[in-house]
């Protein structure tokens, strides 16, 4: 591998460049040009190691981010991932990755390039959470490309290992789930329970007091509910596209105890529940899988409005009166409340369970996920009282001077 200087004249102007002349691991001669000798020397040193290890990918042998993204999406579909998941991946590519990086070749993606891309996403209004999500997708694209021999470096992985200050700042700025914003208050839940009526009351009551995900509620079977023993088993879920499958993770397969209000509600509902081949607890009128949107728009929203759990939409009706909408737009808010109910002190109306017990009830893949989401809700002991108790235990009534 050699680095040589090249001088030529273009339109009467003398120009200079530095060329790395080398043979790759397949015995093919390659050339790469740089403006500065320092850059050429650094690249030559790194490439010598890559060629020796048999992993070097020449510029002409790689592909664009757009092409690599399409290959990654195709692999995800062929692997049998749920349609909702592959649809999300497709959106990541279409809206957040291809418009900014699509024409770049994979070997052009360095940590500075990705940091600049993240800044552009934020400047155009993407949330910190969305930036993290699509960055993870870009990392998967690069990982897939590495497996295919299309690129050597995965700059996203490099960035994750380095954990730059910017990433830590994003973590600190992540908004915690708050009552009245993402989590209904106890008073609001009480009002919703009282106001809920009709065919969607059973699913709302069950969601509130079991914390099941929307997909788990829609896939719940009567054969998985033991009313006499006051418990249900989560063994399957229904995807957004009405496909029955296993829970999100191994931990998602769990048993959840039922309070009396759920047992009584389900016992009454079982008599009126539409029958179907799937034996679902909360089917549509024909006994098939219910639409997620129906539960939200025909069940959750009307129950909130009837309960007075509302917000001003900023719009006005024909008489000039403000139009009120539901305060919480999705079923996940009820899951958040259930988590808080498990965590809160018994004196405050909660169950005061440990983090591990909360993880198991929610079906989280790890206790770390539970703590990352809800750690701020766990009761903290008053430090002054704790220090005084620890001192008394250690020293008794002895007085130190």
TrEMBL record:
Location of the Core-binding (CB) domain: 63-146
SUPFAM superfamilies assigned to the protein according to its UniProt record, in alphabetical order: DNA breaking-rejoining enzymes
Lineage: Bacteria, Pseudomonadati, Pseudomonadota, Alphaproteobacteria, Hyphomicrobiales
Organism: Acuticoccus sediminis
A single BP term in Gene Ontology: DNA integration
Gene Ontology MF annotations: DNA binding
One Pfam family recorded for the sequence: Phage_int_SAM_3
Family: Belongs to the 'phage' integrase family.
Protein name, as recorded: Site-specific integrase
PANTHER family named among the record's database cross-references: PHAGE INTEGRASE-RELATED (PTHR30349), PROPHAGE INTEGRASE INTD-RELATED (PTHR30349:SF64)
InterPro entries (alphabetical): CB, DNA_brk_join_enz, Integrase-like_cat_sf, Integrase_catalytic, Integrase_recombinase_N, Integrase_SAM-like_N, Tyrosine_recombinase_XerCD
Domain spans labelled Tyr recombinase: 179-388
Signal peptide: none
């Amino acid at each position: 591998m050699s680095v040589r200087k090249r001088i030529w004249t273009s339109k009467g102007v003398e120009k200079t460049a530095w060329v790395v002349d080398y043979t790759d691991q397949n015995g093919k001669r390659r050339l790469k040009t740089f403006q500065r000798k320092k850059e050429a020397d650094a690249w030559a040193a790194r490439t010598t190691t890559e060629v020796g290890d048999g992993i070097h990918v020449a510029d002409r042998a790689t592909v664009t981010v757009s092409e690599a993204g399409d290959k990654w999406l195709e692999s995800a579909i062929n692997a049998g991932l749920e349609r909702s998941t592959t649809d999300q991946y497709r959106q990541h590519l279409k809206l957040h990755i291809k418009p900014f990086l699509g024409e770049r070749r994979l070997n052009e993606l360095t940590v500075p390039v990705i940091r600049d891309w993240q800044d552009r996403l934020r400047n155009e209004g993407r949330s910190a959470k969305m930036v993290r999500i699509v960055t993870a997708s870009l990392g998967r694209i690069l990982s897939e490309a590495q497996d295919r021999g299309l690129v050597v470096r995965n700059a996203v992985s490099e960035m994750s290992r380095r954990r730059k200050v910017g990433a830590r700042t994003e973590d600190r700025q992540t908004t915690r789930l708050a009552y009245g914003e993402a989590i209904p208050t106890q008073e609001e839940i009480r009002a919703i329970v009282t106001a809920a009526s009709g065919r969607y009351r059973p699913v709302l009551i069950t969601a509130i007091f079991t914390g099941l995900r929307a997909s788990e509620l829609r896939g719940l079977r009567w054969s998985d509910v033991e009313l006499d023993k006051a418990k249900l088993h989560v063994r399957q879920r229904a995807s957004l596209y009405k496909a029955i499958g296993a829970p999100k993770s191994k931990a998602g397969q769990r048993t959840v105890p039922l309070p009396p209000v759920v047992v009584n509600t389900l016992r009454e509902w079982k008599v009126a529940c539409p029958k179907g081949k799937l034996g679902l607890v909360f089917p549509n009128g024909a006994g098939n899988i219910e639409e997620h949107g129906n539960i939200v728009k025909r069940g959750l929203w009307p129950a909130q409005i009837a309960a007075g759990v509302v917000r001003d939409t900023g719009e006005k009706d024909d008489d000039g009166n403000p139009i009120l909408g539901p305060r919480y737009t999705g079923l996940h808010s009820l899951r958040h409340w259930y988590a808080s109910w498990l965590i809160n002190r018994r004196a405050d109306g909660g169950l005061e369970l440990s983090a591990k017990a909360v993880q198991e009830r929610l079906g989280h893949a790890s206790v770390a996920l539970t703590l990352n989401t809800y750690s701020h809700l766990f009761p903290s002991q008053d430090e002054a009282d704790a220090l005084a108790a620890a001192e008394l235990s250690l020293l008794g009534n002895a007085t130190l001077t």
